[in-house]
Hints:
CATH class: Alpha Beta
Shape: globular
Number of helices: 7
Number of domains: 1
CATH superfamily: NAD(P)-binding Rossmann-like Domain
Largest sheet: 7 strands, parallel
Helix content: 25-40%
Radius of gyration: 17 Å
CATH architecture: 3-Layer(aba) Sandwich
Mean pLDDT: 90
Number of strands: 9
Order of helices and strands: EHEEEHEHEEHHEHEH
Structural class: alpha/beta
CATH topology: Rossmann fold
Amino acid sequence: MDTRHHVFIAGATGYMGQRLAERLIASGHSVAGLVRPGSENRLPTGCKPVAGNALDRTTFSSKLAEADTFVQLVGVAHPNPGKAREFREIDLKSCQESLAVAVTNRIQHFVYVSVAHPAPVMKAYIDVRVECEDKIRSSGLNATIVRPWYVLGPGHYWPYALKPFYAIARQIPGLRDSANRLGLVTLPQMVATLASAVENPPQGVRIVEVPEITAGK
């Protein structure tokens, strides 16, 4: 039985996308990445470039070829509370366009990076990601929704200073659930989780929370 997948990644030149594409290619999967014209050289070796605009489905809907898996990673870089408008113009819009393309092309599995919630901060960001989750459920697609909180990696190391506070919070019954749900995850853990999601498509919608992400290698 052929267990290889044909994966289309929206956001393949980004923080997680490049690393995920590399891992999937190394595992023998066929990978294509949506890129802006002129950015093809940012894709890892072996990743097929598909020129298009993540905010306009008409620029790439006819280019998915034999893809069976769609990974949606497009979003505002370094999200913060001051980017509420960008979350709706980029994160929400790109998700809507990607979903429409996935439905049109009868994609078998849609993979989406959301955010851990509920949380006491980043309301605008969370609201958009929850809205995207609702749209995914309404689409009828088989889907994996991954909910990290903060992803530690190159350029994103400062939250390591918070690890002692997380350790203390996990010892306090009233804070334990929140500390686990809003825990820190690493970039390698996220890539491993996404790769595993691609290789293990669900029937229906599967939610992957922080404790399951941190179990990744």
